[in-house]
Amino acid sequence: SSELTQDPAVSVALGQTVRITCQGDSLGSYYASWYQQKPGQAPVLVNYGKNNRPSGIPDRFSGSSSGNTASLTITGAQAEDEADYYCNSRDRSGSHLVFGGGTKLTVL
Amino acid sequence: QVQLQESGPGLVKSSETLSLTCTVSGGSMSSYYWSWIRQPPGKGLEWIGYIYYSGTTSYNPSLKSRVTITVDTSKNQFSVNLSSVTAADTAVYFCARVPYSSLNGFYYYYMDVWGKGTTVTVSS
Question: Which among B52, B59, B104, B114 would be 20 to 30 A from A94, CA to CA?
């Protein structure tokens, strides 16, 4: 099992707000990064550090952190946001990177 | 605009060594880490390891005994070798660029450019 824990599946009604969480001891010391992956495609970075968005990522994607939990919030979810989402950060040792198990987001 | 492209055999025999190369175009390898990630069919992402442009490496502890990542900045390429493969190593393999930054004294890393991925099947 991963050192970063994510809920396997989350659903949200179209236009509503959803929070995807990532828990792990290392998150008290390191920021997480978040990736969106659609079927058959490579992951895409959507948020990193203290709530930074790469160019081209809509501002409805925001990141936050509290204690040992990092969160990705989608405010006003769109149909195209339906995808798998993965968090990534350092592990407890700080020497390696690790991914969470992923969260499948369904937009209803 | 930086682009990454994975290349290598799509079929590897069990117990042999898997070798893949990632070619970086449109930018320099300097001042970045460069990573390999894989995804078995129907499963999540697994970090394999990364290499700094100067050659410093870090590997996933679960793969450390079998994996080697190297870099050739003159060719703008980095590579991964995974030895003694089994069916469990069947996966899509991605390469990615890893910038790093710091805030409040803590470094953080993220993968901002990814290759499209290449499928590797281990056959018996």
Answer: B114
The per-type count for chain A, helices as H runs and strands as E runs, is 0, 9
Q: Which of A33, A45, A86 sits opposite B44 (nearest CB)?
A: A86
Please write the tens of the pLDDT for every residue from B35-79.
Answer: 999 999 999 999 999 999 999 999 999 999 999 999 999 999 999
Instruction: Report the Cα–Cα distance between both ends of chain A, in Å, rounded.
Output: 29
Question: Each residue of A52-99: pLDDT tens digit?
Answer: 999 999 999 999 999 999 999 999 999 999 999 999 999 988 889 999
User: At which residue do the structure tokens 């470094």 appear?
Assistant: B107
The rounded distance, in Å, linking the Cα atoms of B18 and B12 is 6
Inspect the interface and report whether the beta carbons of A42 and B117 lie closer than 8 Å: yes
The chain B residue lying nearest A104, using CA atoms, is: B44
| Contact in structure between B119 and B19 (CB atoms under 8 Å) | no
Give tens-digit pLDDT for A19-49.
999 999 999 889 999 999 999 999 999 999 9
Burial class (CB within 10 angstroms; exposed 0-12, middle 13-18, buried 19+) of B88: exposed
Distance CA A85, CA A104 (A): 6
Which H or E element spans position B34? strand B33-39
Task: Give chain B positions within 8 Å (CB) of A29.
Answer: 106
Pairing of strands B118-123, B11-13: parallel
